[in-house]
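Field log, afternoon session.

UNIT: design team B
ACTIVITY: writing a sequence onto a fixed backbone
BACKBONE:
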């Protein structure tokens, strides 16, 4: 059974277990590094009683290289900064008009493996796209979600002490030009697209709401939206 078939065989939630509460924080627009450092701090300080959280954010323009990222995949960054970070995967772009979601999840508590988590995140995005009659699909060996061969959602995770951080980047209504300055996810010539270009909505809030609902269903979580102050990531 290949990875795509294995993902398709997964049930929709955590095997019928009671839903776990998950705090949802909408951080608005933020530079990348303070949010990244805040994720690390939360993961390092949490214990078995710490709640799971889902952070939503729209980042200022930045290219990020994963742990094994190769600099030759950054072709001509120009005025956009490049950060080498501690997630999996190669290089991707974050910028305005993209919904980034960071699930800070205790995998042991949910009885999930890393492959399970990847599959469920991917399925949640497929579910969201289906709301607007867009057919999202997986590609073997290349995590993320694609529509007619063009990538609309990139995925890069890190698991430490049984807990996940980093997450997914979902192109909603953004300038896609910066992707031409890199080999997206390490693939030369990979096309990227956005929800808006595929006929879906342009409002990030609309997509955020749908994404939180879909992730909660697929991960067996009960979302609780939490007010977050402007200095949360300071």
């Amino acid at each position: 059974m290949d990875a795509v078939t294995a993902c398709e065989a997964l049930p929709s939630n955590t095997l019928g277990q009671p839903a776990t509460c998950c705090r949802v924080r909408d951080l608005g627009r933020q530079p990348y590094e303070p949010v990244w450092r805040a994720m690390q701090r939360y993961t390092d300080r949490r214990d078995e009683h710490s709640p799971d959280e889902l952070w939503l954010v729209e980042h200022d323009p930045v290219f990020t290289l994963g742990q094994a990222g190769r600099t030759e995949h950054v072709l001509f960054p120009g005025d956009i900064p490049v950060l080498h970070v501690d997630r999996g995967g190669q290089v991707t772009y974050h910028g305005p008009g993209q919904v980034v979601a960071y699930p800070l999840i205790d995998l042991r508590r949910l009885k999930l493996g890393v492959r399970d988590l990847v599959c469920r995140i991917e399925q949640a995005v497929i579910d969201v796209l289906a709301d607007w009659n867009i057919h999202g699909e997986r590609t073997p060996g290349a995590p993320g979600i694609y529509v007619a061969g063009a990538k609309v959602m990139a995925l890069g995770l890190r698991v430490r002490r049984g807990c996940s951080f980093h997450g997914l980047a979902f192109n909603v209504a953004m300038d896609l030009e910066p992707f031409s300055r890199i080999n997206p996810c390490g693939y030369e010539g990979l096309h990227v697209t956005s929800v808006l270009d595929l006929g879906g909505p342009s409002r990030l809030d609309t997509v955020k709401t749908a994404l939180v609902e879909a992730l909660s269903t697929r991960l067996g979580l009960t979302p609780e939206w939490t007010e977050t102050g402007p200095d949360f990531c300071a």
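LOG NOTE: The mean pLDDT is 92.
NEXT ACTIVITY: expression trials, pending approval
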